[in-house]
Amino acid sequence: MITNFERIFNFAVTDFRRNKGSNIAAIFVLVVTILLATGLLMFQGMANHIISEIQNKIDITAYFKEGTGEENILSVKDEITNLSPDIKSVTYVSEAQALQEFNEKHQGNESLARAIEEVGGNPFLSSLNIVTTGKTSQYENISNILQSDKYKGLIEKVDFSQKRDIIEKVFSITSNVNKFGIGLGIFMMVIAILVVLNTIKLTVDNSKDEISTMKIVGASDWFVRGPFVIQGAIYGVIAFAISFAISLIAVYLFSSKISLIMPGFFAFKYFISNIIIFILVQLGFGIFLGIISSFIVIRRYLKV
Amino acid sequence: MISFKKVTKIYDPDTTVLQDVSFDVAGGEFVSIVGKSGAGKTTLIRMIMGLEKPTSGQVMFGDLSVGDATLPELQGMRRQIGSIFQDYRLFATKTVYENVAYILEVEGKENDEINTEVPKVLETIGLKHRADNFPRELSGGEQQRLAIARALINQPKVILADEPTGNLDPYNSYEVISLLEKINKTGKTVILLTHDRAVVNKLGKRVITLEDGKMIRDEKEGKFII
Question: Whole-prediction pTM value?
Fold first, then answer.
């Protein structure tokens, strides 16, 4: 058993060394496929970043009645925060803070400053900004809770209904982007896999007469198939090493340019912090495709 | 050793390549099978190797019905047959040494035995100095001798030679046939498929003649008559 495995392994390594031309073609196609998978993974990271950025900008605000004590507001804040794990953040903005933010935002706008002066005092109300991880229905639930009798005495208004359309539109866009990304990814991967299969088929085709001779001299299916499958794995490992080096260098070189287009997204940092996933995807993809393609292609020639 | 019992082979839809063929080959016999192209010689030899199944009738290898054999039984049977082909069918990416060693490796022989046996056979066949060459670096005669070395290395009971002199000049043809005669003298059964009238007539051994898929002659010391 061990002797047989050793022989199969040696055949694979020797054949690999002696068929450089077709090996290079198979490895090249695998590299392209792995890089495509890597690109899709990177694209997913970028899409998630954009979606999360947009989602963070969507909130509902509960405005408290004038004169509501801070301890009451903070107690509502605690209650809302503990309401559901889908609540990402609840931020308390006091009347003074709201005025300050308004002034900072509209610095130099004299007509607005004059309007504030005419109103006299601070026209802003204390508020809670609530951001969730989820869909419109989650915002709706929170809005309903905040408008229930329990909080009627404290809360002046909740601005959900005005934002409802925007929230729905944003979530519909992000969900469509996700669906489109997955669909496109699957489509491209299927094409890539078919190309890999055909390239490895061409490699094995060169040996079809030898395969039939091996069977005629009494070799078992595994004795014939083994070297091809191991060669498939060797293609995968080499293709992984090349793809990993290319993606590492490319991400390093383009990271700053990507950050310019997508502020807050650092491609190299993302790559490094997810390096295990990238390695597993690239290595797994390379070896799996190499082995499976060889396995499938050689099957038809073994029927001797 | 090998028996054909009323063997008929029809390819779809209705091409009959062998019709009601029956004969026995005893252990240690030398049998030439002759016939024009399309007479059914190659189908006959493919049936012995289990590459084709008879449409009706039975091909026996010892006690084994080849058409009904399982894959492991076929593998075991094929290891008892040394095959030599007109186009040599050598392993192009293996050296001369590796081509011969492969047969013993298939059988799971130990490396020590392989390292002893292969050089011996290469010496006998006159290819020891070519051990590290690839088949494409050999002449036609050398390639056929290598094919014979490969067929002999595991001491098979039967040698099936399908037009082994088809691509060779008269000198190399003579050499190959002499080798087959020598092999036969060691007690091995040799089945030779050939077009070569001179070879068959010189041998003076048993000749089975096929014509249009039918066996029309089976003579103990036959001649090439078509």
Answer: 0.75
